[in-house]
């Protein structure tokens, strides 16, 4: 395990910008790149369907640190290219051949499932030592967003795994439709701060520095990262319907929950987003690391593809230091130990889950069976379940 706090300072934060075709990613990026906060930013853009060069295009006169990947869909075919490009850019930076960029934005094609990109960033040893995932920013089209969510599961996943959600084109969309879409996005991902934007205009500080590491305080900021108060505990559908919580809606509105997450919309019984669950699970007692690891292993083995995102802080037995976990499907970031618990923290373990077709109760049962097995001195949890 490594210490994220010191290592994080030296690694370059990477923002993954995703969102369905035409939802406003490029418009946003163009505006952002004019802002001083992003003056030292390298950008990697994947253009799906472009007639590519024979090989990955890395522009020689690349003062801006801007690279376009032309080799197809970023999510599957160019993961190798992404690793190579990011490594090459880092090398050029070290040699002084490009602006010494301090930040990176990777814009995905609109059709991409962002998960494989996150996997690459989290696990490739070369990248993980040089870069860190700062956050996933997802644009959702204020005009076409609802039908896109209906018809494209990737679009739902893009919104579900976001750390920041941006509803675009609010200048031309109708207010009632926007309100509906906003509520739908909130159901899908209550933990992600939400902003309505037009023409790509937003204060960069609202979308940058979304990761665990807070560069201002130069320390891990668990509360901001987990945003756990957005999820109410103990409800099958993740966020409590009677529990009034302030979704981080910077338009200044609070959301009321008309109907529960997971309930079928009578007009549209097959909505992809009805499959998504988001909830925060809390564990009061310190946990043994081997038990937690085994429980996550079991979850990943049986339901890996449906564990869209997991973020958490654990109180592990025999240590005073909290352990941070972060997973996307079957891939976990190497667990990191923080130097200390945040001041005033109740030191309960808590994990935010965003899942597809997995109820909170199922995950609770898996953990319970492993805790039970630990208590009984580790006979096989599977056998106990069968009894
Ligand atoms: N009126 C209005 N138009 C917008 C806004 N944001 C984007 N657009 C327009 O919507 C179209 C698509 O925007 P892009 O920024 O190219 O979207 P994208 O997500 O990069 O699109 P792809 O690269 O195809 O995935 C363009 O014609 C933009 O000018 C907005 O806030 N308001």
Automatic annotation (TrEMBL):
| Its biological purpose | Zinc chaperone that directly transfers zinc cofactor to target proteins, thereby activating them. Zinc is transferred from the CXCC motif in the GTPase domain to the zinc binding site in target proteins in a process requiring GTP hydrolysis.
Domain called CobW C-terminal: residue spans: 276-371
User: What species does this protein belong to?
Assistant: Enhydrobacter aerosaccus
Ranges where the record places region Disordered: 234-273
Gene3D superfamilies to which the protein is assigned, alphabetical: CobW-like, C-terminal domain (3.30.1220.10), P-loop containing nucleotide triphosphate hydrolases (3.40.50.300)
Pfam family for this entry, one: CobW_C
Which domain of life does the UniProt lineage start with? Answer: Bacteria
Q: Which UniProt keywords apply?
A: Chaperone, Hydrolase, Nucleotide-binding
Catalytic reaction(s) noted: GTP + H2O = GDP + phosphate + H(+)
Its Gene Ontology cellular component terms are: cytoplasm
Q: Where is the signal peptide?
A: none
> This protein is called what?
GTPase, G3E family
* An MF annotation (GO) of this entry: hydrolase activity
Q: Where is the composition biased (Basic and acidic residues)?
A: 246-273
Family indicated by similarity:
Belongs to the SIMIBI class G3E GTPase family. ZNG1 subfamily.
């Amino acid at each position: 395990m490594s210490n994220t706090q010191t290592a994080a300072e030296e690694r370059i934060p990477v923002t993954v910008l995703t969102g369905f075709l035409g939802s406003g990613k490029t418009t946003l990026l163009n505006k952002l790149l004019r802002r001083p906060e992003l003056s030292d930013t390298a950008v990697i853009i994947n253009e799906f369907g472009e007639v590519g060069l024979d090989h990955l295009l890395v522009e020689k006169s690349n003062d801006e640190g801007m690279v376009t990947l032309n080799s197809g869909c970023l999510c599957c075919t160019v993961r190798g290219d992404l690793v190579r490009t990011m490594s090459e850019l880092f090398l050029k930076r070290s040699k002084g051949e490009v602006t010494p960029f301090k930040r990176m934005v990777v814009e995905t094609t609109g059709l991409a499932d962002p998960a494989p990109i996150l996997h690459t960033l989290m696990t490739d040893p070369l990248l993980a030592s040089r870069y860190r995932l700062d956050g996933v920013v997802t644009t959702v089209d204020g005009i076409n967003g609802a039908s896109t969510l209906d018809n494209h599961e990737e679009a739902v996943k893009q919104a579900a795994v976001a750390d920041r959600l941006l509803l675009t084109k609010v200048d031309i969309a109708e207010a009632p439709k926007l309100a509906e879409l906003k509520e739908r996005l909130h159901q899908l991902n209550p933990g992600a701060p939400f902003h309505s934007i037009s023409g790509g205009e937003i204060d960069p500080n609202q979308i940058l520095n979304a990761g665990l590491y807070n560069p201002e305080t130069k320390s891990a900021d668990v509360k901001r990262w987990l945003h756990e108060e957005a999820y109410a505990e103990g409800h099958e559908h993740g966020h409590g319907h009677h529990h009034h919580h302030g979704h981080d809606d910077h338009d200044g509105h609070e959301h009321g929950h008309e109907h529960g997450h997971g309930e079928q919309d009578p007009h549209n019984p097959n909505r992809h987003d009805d499959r998504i669950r988001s909830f925060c699970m809390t564990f009061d007692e310190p946990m043994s690391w081997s038990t937690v690891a085994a429980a996550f292993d079991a979850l990943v083995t049986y339901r890996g593809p449906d564990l869209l995102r997991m973020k958490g802080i654990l109180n592990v037995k025999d240590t005073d230091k909290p352990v941070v976990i972060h997973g996307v499907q079957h891939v976990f970031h190497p667990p990191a130990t923080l130097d200390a618990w945040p001041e005033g923290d109740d030191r309960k373990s808590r994990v935010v889950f965003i899942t597809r077709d997995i109820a909170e109760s199922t995950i609770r049962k898996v953990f319970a069976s492993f805790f039970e097995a630990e208590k009984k001195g580790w006979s096989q949890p599977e056998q106990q379940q069968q009894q």
